[in-house]
From TrEMBL:
The keyword Kinase belongs to this UniProt entry's keyword annotation: no
Similarity remark: Belongs to the acyl coenzyme A hydrolase family.
Source organism, top-level taxon: Bacteria
Domain HotDog ACOT-type, residue spans: 9-121
Entry's Gene Ontology BP terms: acyl-CoA metabolic process; fatty acid catabolic process
Protein name in UniProt: Acyl-CoA thioesterase
Alphabetized UniProt keyword annotations: Hydrolase
Length: 180
């Protein structure tokens, strides 16, 4: 049977928002947590465009906040699925800030996220393969396997940390009775 495929460009999602005072911190720049919520939201839309079913966020790779986004700027998020495993999908999100008075644009953040497609019983479900077409898409896709391997290593390290806390008798404040 022929493997189901989806073109990378058919997974693209784009969102633009204005940065309001309630989105900012005491320095007048955007809250990282607010931007993370936008990133997770748009990335999940791209993942669902690929698998056309429910997904969960499995992990967010390091998010580099490259430039501050200021109150009154617009923020544009572009997402697309860059690599697919069996049930997992890697999504790249690029965040661009625009100073609306001058038109100056800059990349404010970049992040890779991994989503897992779930079946009716909440178990990981196979996804269609994403197909790159342009040179940029091909590069992102070819380098995806390496990033996925790195995530596996990182997940194993998290498991070690969980095992450590599970046997620890201390809370963070040093009192007894931790044990997660
Ligand atoms: C994500 C989740 C479904 C994975 O379940 P699991 O039992 O670990 O499943 P598996 O080990 O079979 O892994 C399934 C796929 O997820 C990938 N995966 C699992 N954990 C991952 C992680 N931390 N980062 C990246 N990929 C991950 C695996 O590599 C595998 O990919 P593949 O099928 O393409 O080879 C499960 O850990 C979960 O439900 N987590 C909570 C998700 C959630 O609530 N998200 C919202 C955040 S509040």
């Amino acid at each position: 049977m022929e493997e189901k495929t989806v073109r990378m460009k058919d997974t693209v999602s784009i969102k633009t928002a204005l940065v309001f005072p309630q989105d900012t911190n005491m320095h007048g720049t955007m809250f990282g947590g607010k931007l993370l919520a936008y990133i997770d939201d748009i990335a999940s839309i791209s993942a669902m465009k690929l698998c056309r079913g429910p997904v969960v966020t499995a992990s967010i790779d390091s998010v580099d906040f490259i430039k501050p986004i200021r109150e009154g700027d617009s923020v544009t998020l572009e997402a697309m699925v860059t690599w697919t495993g069996r049930s997992s999908m890697e999504v790249l999100v690029k965040v661009t800030a625009e100073h609306l008075m001058t038109g100056e644009k800059s990349i404010a953040a970049l992040s890779f996220l991994t989503f897992v497609s779930l079946d009716e019983s909440g178990k990981p479900k196979p996804v269609p393969k994403v197909v790159p077409e342009t040179n940029q898409e091909k590069w992102l896709n070819e380098t995806g396997q390496r990033r996925a391997r790195y995530r596996k290593t990182r997940k194993n390290q998290s498991k070690e940390l969980i095992a450590f806390f599970a046997q620890s008798e201390e809370d963070f404040n040093g009192t007894q009775g931790g044990n997660v």
